[in-house]
Amino acid sequence: MLKPRATPTRDLCNLDGLWGFATDDQAGPDPWRSRLGLGLEVAVPASYNDLFADPAIRDHVGWVWYQRTVQVPRGWDGQRIVLRVDAATHAGRVYVDDRLVAEHVGGYTPFEADVTGLVTPGTAFRLTIGVNNELTNVTIPPGTITVGHDGRRRQRYHHDFFNYAGLARSVWLYSTPVRHVTDITVVTDTADGVGFVDYAVDHEGTADVVVRLRDAEGDVVASGTGATGRLSVPDARLWQPGAAYLYEFEAELVEQGEVVDTYPLAVGIRTVEVRGTQFLINGEPFYFTGFGKHEDSPVRGKGHDDAYLVHDFQLLEWIGANSFRTSHYPYAEEVLEFADRHGIVVIDETAAVGLNLSVTGGLLGAKPKPTFSPETFNDETQAAHAQHIRELVARDKNHPSVVMWCIANEPASHEEGARKYFEPLVHLTHTLDPTRPVTSTAFLFASYDNDLIADLFDVVSLNRYYGWYIDNGDLASAEHKLEAELRGWAETHGKPIIMGEYGADTMPGLHSLWDVPWTEEYQVAYLEMNHRVFDRIEAFVGEHVWNFADFGTGPGIHRVDGNKKGIFTRDRRPKAAAHALRARWTRLGNHKP
């Protein structure tokens, strides 16, 4: 699905701002049929949970309703008119006046509706969007809903971040010609200094396809005709980690000598490959340094914010990080475009976090239910997971910054049924995109001698907390156990290994002369211990600290005002560990120590 853009043949209206708002119990039946009358207003884009003082809204489970009046530009006569929602967490319904025009399940990928003929250029219509935050055993991510003694519905889920909901990304109204480009796929390669761009342009209508590739100065360096083909670029400038170079691919539909549609796409020429225990970008070994992140900030929750986008990437540059993982869901497209332009490498992840019921048993001391069964995570869950993978690849396949797909976070890969569940999903991902490696992060209970799915993946990704959840406060024992496990993974699988998560909760401003957990000194010592081990493992190709910044979570006796494993506070102030990481990562650059 192409991101809406304003071009010589397309127009674009952003519908962000203040909308009318109501929860389903406030709005009454069929709220799309009339004006929401509560007087509540909500910001778009933003999660709605932290915007209001009413705890009933913050903790609401079920549908909420957004509404506004939209004026259709009068110059759009004869054009195709489309409504697009960049994300509705976790399900959405869109109504134009009284008519349902779109439904979508999945909280982090876009959906749209062709409303040509339902709206009239030069007039206004009532736009109502319903958003549902419910999670069940057949949603991605999963959860359960219970009813308390007070009759209030409560959402339970298996992931450690707050279930922010709403319209966290932009809403658009845009126009295209009736005969228009519907999708573009590009795949790049290099040989002997020549860059290659293989392309496929999907379109409506019978027009001819003309393509051009322009360099950063706007000069045409290659061109072609036809809906598919290969462009060759002599002396191509490559997209490199830390040194991004982007060409512009331009697709035109031409009919009887007239351009009827045009669409531009940023293209970075680069290659990605796993060879033995190395991860290669442009044929050179690459060592990941950076973080697992979250879309999370005070008040806005998961709402996309360009100011935080700029500042977060400035902090990545300052600390010397070259990469991050979109834990635990696809981030806004603006984030990936920014990474494309600034040379930051991305591991792109689905929203499949929480497919692990053994976590609950471990925390509560109760015997857990089997993770994979007809009553828990089943064929319907797997089908929803597959759809998430399809939509992720379809949206992000052309970003040069994206070098690997991560299809799940900490699933119960050691449990019976894991291989039956995951093997088709790994095959699907490789089929949809044969050019990128695929991984999944392994939970602590899955070791190199009991994991059932690691051989399916190109890269072994581990989340490990020796020195925090295991051997808390005893870094000497933690170092011994961590090294023994990493060597076991390396000997068993012979694949690149990346640490997808490692970290220690740290209260900013808490200090001690000794290695006391929760202090800033302990966080530094914990990271240094991990790094000593990483540097001794030949197959090790990267380190992603958990987490970039402190973030909001649900209630829990082990969480005080959220998860405190951030290297930066939630408002992006550095802890002592930020300076220690900066010293290490600026020295390493993109290379293994």
UniProtKB/TrEMBL annotation:
Using the record's annotation, list all stretches that form the Glycosyl hydrolases family 2 sugar binding domain: 14-177
Kindly indicate whether the keyword Hydrolase belongs to this entry: yes
Task: Write down the top EC class of this protein.
Answer: hydrolase
Keyword check for Lipid metabolism: no
| UniProt entry keywords in alphabetical sequence | Glycosidase, Hydrolase
Question: Which residue range or ranges hold the Glycoside hydrolase family 2 catalytic domain?
Answer: 272-588
Q: Which residues cross the membrane?
A: none
Q: Which NCBIfam families match?
A: PRK10150.1
This protein is called Beta-glucuronidase
What is the organism field in this record? Amycolatopsis melonis
